[in-house]
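Morning - zinc ion inputs below, output right after.
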Amino acid sequence: MKTAVYHNNHDVRVEDYPIPEPGRGEILVQTRASGVCVADTMEWYLSPRAPLTLGHEAAGVVVKVGPETGKIQVGDRVSVHHHVPCLICEHCRRGNYTMCETFKKTHIRPGGFSEFFLASALHVERDTLVLPENVSFEVGTLVEPLACVIHAIRKANVQPGDSVVLVGTGTMGLMFIQALKYWGVRKLIVYEILEWRQKKACEFGAPIVLTPYQDPEDEVKRVREILGTHGADKVIVAAKDLRAMEMGVRLANKGGTVLFFATPHPQESIPLFPSYIFFNEITITSSYSANHLDTRTALDLLANGAVTGEALISHRYPIEQLSEAILQTASRQGSLKCVITFA
Ligand SMILES: [Zn+2]
Ligand SMILES: [Zn+2]
């Protein structure tokens, strides 16, 4: 079978791998579509560990099952989440499933950028979801990224009636817009620098889309005027730009929450003003990945149309062009979600 092996963003080689055999509780999935994630473009994170077989947003058809795979059967159309928690460690017991060691160690093998992949017994038992008829394989690849959005909304404790500021409208940002509206937010202000993305944000239902002012003080004034309060109840920064993060902290309401969703380089930092945080009771938090509860909600939102999956997929590539798909994703020029499709 064809499997893509990543060395760096410009060097991805398609190699011939043996088709794996499912053991007890395991399933073999024929990949039909696999999403390219921004995480697949972070060379500083990936290259030191290369060669790697990537692809963690995969959907396909079950073609072989090992003994004792429960309800999953040959022919099922599935989305398999790449990480699954143990459910019993100290992190899982506190509900922090994405911090679980088992979660980080579990992977589909060799990965979603491969003609076939194996899902372990834990994957099959905990986070293999059968796609409803009206969810295509391509849309099925959005279960994982949308689940990350849901995870963030839950971690920020977004409530119906909240005012929310969202910074950044990449593919994740566009999913945030739709999911936040589904969550019943009262007011939503979206920030974006790129003009074509601003248009997309409007298309996806953002009521107010702004280009940030140069001076953050002006921005604070503007948001206070629009919201009629001290700031937004929840601020979600879905951009790895440090200025966006700094601005995000300033735009939160008293008692508000700021959630960092994107990953800057580990050496980068922003100034923090503890006194401001203290007097305004600002909560600063973050969210990493998504758990088996988030994926189920994500699939519901894709199936009931609250999030319009088809409109989020802009580019399709064969596995041989994975490097092009990665570079397109990294360029932020005119693309939403890029997916690798398999005949
Ligand atoms: Zn991803
Ligand atoms: Zn655990």
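Note: The longest helix spans residues 143-155.

O.
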